[in-house]
């Protein structure tokens, strides 16, 4: 973005002024505005009626106290958030994150990204995000239930299948969704299946939902590779994280013939050149809720565990950061480029720093931004809403086929848009512009609201 630009410069300056101390939100806004100069130059009406200014300002920001009682009988206080960012395309849609790092700026950055991500899916859903600074690690099931019930006791008045439909994110899986859905049902006296997504299959959930973000990221990376006449078969892949997104990214990479040689958690990373044993990883992470260090311990000499350096120092053909924001730095990008990385697909939300992104672009590395690459999760959430509305349940194969079709459409839309604006191969610009145009057109049609 040119700081002297008559339209975009003042917008960004106002975002900085009105949202002090929120660097993640500033970063997300700047990345989008950097792509919009060509759009405004080609179609000046997008710079009128305060449209871009309105797009950068959430429609509603909700902050609330979440009191709960731990197993020792002590009262704990956390802070809850829900940012309802934009509903021009449909009800707000986006996950809930339970993690100590959660604050208003992070929730706003996630909600802003969600607006464009949801637009790219082609589904009728707006963008929002929420969560709490509550840390579920080390807490008992009863403590987590009490927290979730307290959180939903406030949130229930702000959500609904036609208003705002939360899902899971970091720290929020099927267990937490279940506790919150139960409290919502209790508070409203309604079995409104469509109010939350990521539910269990026996009570309104969708097949492929837990796999969707990881599977979708791999589908997107495969489409990028295909443009160069390449595929995943025989490729070495590094996936950061070992949560839901990472696990099912690994699963799909393996199905397509790739070898995932490293994964991580907040305590360190493991490297296994022969390929990560997915069954053991699932056992440790999904059943035991243990640490990645245990994986290396059980594998013996087959795997090494490290707490020093970075997982991105491991040589690979494909890198899929699937842990958290700004985890892959310029230094990491340099290491990956030196090792000959072909493609990077963001499985997490904004996991690459701006410096890293610039380095990948300069080196000609295929780069899939999170709002496109990891859109499979929210797309399948929308499919869950569709099944809930029709009181239907689809097969795994039917749902996965639909997911693969959506991810191909997102890839093709990003590539086509980048070409249209004279930026061939730039998936960042393609995603930002395609998402922006769809939301902006809807906002213009609805008037100044």
What report would you give on this structure?
With 449 residues, the chain is of the alpha/beta class. Helices cover 47% and strands 15% of the residues. It has 16 helices and twelve strands. It has helices at 8-18, 23-42, 51-55, 104-120, 141-155, 174-188, 209-226, 244-255, 278-287, 292-299, 330-338, 354-362, 370-373, 376-389, 396-420, 427-446; strands spanning 60-69, 75-86, 92-98, 127-132, 164-168, 236-239, 259-265, 268-271, 304-306, 318-320, 343-345, 366-368. The longest helix has 25 residues, at 396-420.
List the helices and strands and how they pair.
Elements: H1 8-18, H2 23-42, H3 51-55, E1 60-69, E2 75-86, E3 92-98, H4 104-120, E4 127-132, H5 141-155, E5 164-168, H6 174-188, H7 209-226, E6 236-239, H8 244-255, E7 259-265, E8 268-271, H9 278-287, H10 292-299, E9 304-306, E10 318-320, H11 330-338, E11 343-345, H12 354-362, E12 366-368, H13 370-373, H14 376-389, H15 396-420, H16 427-446
Parallel strand pairs: 3-4, 3-5, 6-7, 6-10, 10-11, 11-12
Antiparallel strand pairs: 1-2, 2-4, 7-8, 8-9
Tags for this model:
449 residues, alpha/beta, Glutamate Dehydrogenase, Chain A, domain 3, Rossmann fold, 3 domains, seven-stranded mixed beta sheet, five-stranded mixed beta sheet, 12 strands, 15% strand, globular
Short structural summary:
The chain is α/β, with parallel strands linked by helices and 449 residues long. The protein is 47% helix and 15% strand.
The CATH fourth-level homologous superfamily of the largest domain: NAD(P)-binding Rossmann-like Domain
Shape: globular
Count of separate DSSP helical elements: 16
Number of domains: 3
Q: What is the SS-derived class? A: alpha/beta
CATH architecture of the largest domain: 3-Layer(aba) Sandwich
Q: Major sheet, described briefly?
A: 7 strands, mixed
How far do the termini sit from each other? 26 Å
Strand order of the largest sheet: 9-8-7-6-10-11-12
Classify the beta-strand content into a percent band. 5-15%
Could you tell me the number of beta strands?
12
Helix content, binned percent: 40-55%
The Rg value, from CA coordinates, equals: 21 Å
Mean pLDDT: 96
Succession of helices and strands = HHHEEEHEHEHHEHEEHHEEHEHEHHHH
Assign the CATH class of the largest domain.
Alpha Beta
């Amino acid at each position: 973005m040119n700081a002297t630009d008559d339209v975009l410069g003042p917008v960004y300056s106002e975002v900085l002024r009105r949202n002090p101390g929120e660097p993640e939100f500033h970063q997300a806004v700047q990345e989008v505005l950097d792509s919009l100069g060509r759009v405004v130059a080609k179609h000046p009406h997008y710079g009128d009626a305060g449209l871009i200014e309105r797009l950068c300002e959430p429609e509603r920001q909700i902050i609330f106290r979440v009191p709960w009682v731990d197993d020792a009988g002590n009262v704990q206080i956390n802070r809850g958030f829900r940012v309802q960012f934009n509903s021009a395309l449909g009800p707000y849609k986006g996950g809930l994150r339970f993690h100590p790092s959660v604050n208003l700026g992070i929730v706003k950055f996630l909600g802003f990204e969600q607006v464009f991500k949801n637009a790219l899916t082609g589904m009728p859903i707006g963008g929002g995000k929420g969560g709490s600074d509550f840390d579920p690690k080390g807490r008992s099931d009863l403590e987590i239930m009490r927290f979730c019930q307290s959180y939903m006791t406030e949130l229930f008045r702000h959500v609904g299948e036609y208003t705002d439909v939360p899902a899971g994110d970091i720290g929020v899986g099927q267990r937490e969704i279940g506790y919150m859905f139960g409290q919502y049902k209790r508070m409203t006296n309604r079995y409104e299946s469509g109010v939350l997504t990521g539910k269990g299959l026996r009570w309104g959930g969708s097949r492929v939902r837990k796999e969707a973000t990881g599977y979708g990221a791999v589908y997107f990376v495969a489409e990028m590779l295909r443009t160069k006449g390449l595929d995943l078969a025989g490729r070495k892949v590094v996936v950061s994280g070992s949560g839901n997104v990472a696990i099912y990214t690994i699963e799909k990479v393996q199905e397509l013939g790739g070898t995932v040689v490293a994964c991580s958690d907040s305590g360190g990373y493991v490297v296994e050149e022969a390929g990560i044993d997915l069954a053991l990883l699932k056992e440790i992470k999904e059943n035991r809720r243990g640490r990645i260090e245990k994986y290396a311990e059980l594998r013996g000499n087959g795997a090494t565990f490290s707490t020093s350096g970075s997982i991105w120092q491991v040589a690979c053909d494909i890198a899929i950061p699937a842990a958290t924001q700004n985890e892959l730095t310029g230094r990491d990008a340099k290491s990956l480029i030196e090792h000959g990385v072909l493609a990077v697909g963001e499985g997490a939300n904004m996991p690459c720093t701006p410096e890293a992104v610039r380095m990948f672009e300069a080196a000609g590395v295929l780069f899939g931004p999170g709002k496109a690459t990891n859109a499979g999760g929210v797309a399948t959430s929308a499919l869950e809403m569709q099944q809930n509305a029709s009181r239907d349940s689809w097969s795994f194969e039917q749902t996965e086929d639909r997911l693969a079709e959506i991810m191909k459409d997102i890839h093709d839309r990003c590539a086509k848009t980048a070409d249209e604006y004279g930026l061939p191969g730039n998936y960042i610009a393609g995603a930002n512009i395609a998402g922006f145009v769809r939301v902006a057109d809807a906002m213009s049609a609805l008037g100044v609201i």
